[in-house]
Request: fold
Amino acid sequence: MNPLAVWIETHREQLVVLSVQELSPRDMIVRRSVEAPLRAFFDVLRQSVLEDSIEPMELLLTSWVAGRYYSPGDNPLGVLPVLGVLKRVIWQVFQVTPPSEGNDILALAAELDLIFGQAVEFLAKAEAEALVQHLSQSSADSEIIEPRTENDVKSGIVAVAAHEFKTPMTVIEGYTNM
Reply:
């Protein structure tokens, strides 16, 4: 069995506890709500290590991005910073209790870093696509709700342009009449 997968399994609860503390230091309600997703994350991380594939991680991250709620006027924070916290917690535990001595610790660290690198790339792309989709939907919703607003803006621009065009013409006409 892969020594990194064994290490993740062995330290899973410690990783979950530290991650929960890092993500929500004071809010007990948030702590309870993030424990299950974090356990799932470390299970999927272990599975990705065993399969030497990022696919299990992609499925979980896709569900996290899809579950992100955008409210009107929301400044979406995204899931990417959460992944950074999880990586930082893993490195902290990894440094204190590295995998057993018979293993090449540097190779295991590189393997873990590769998985996180691929996860970050995937997550950045997934979040960007979700944000574009959300903005497109918001734009479509605003066009349906307020179609007059766009026409009013167009009319306003034409009126301002016509006024600005007439102003120099009036000055030129005045000099011509003199």
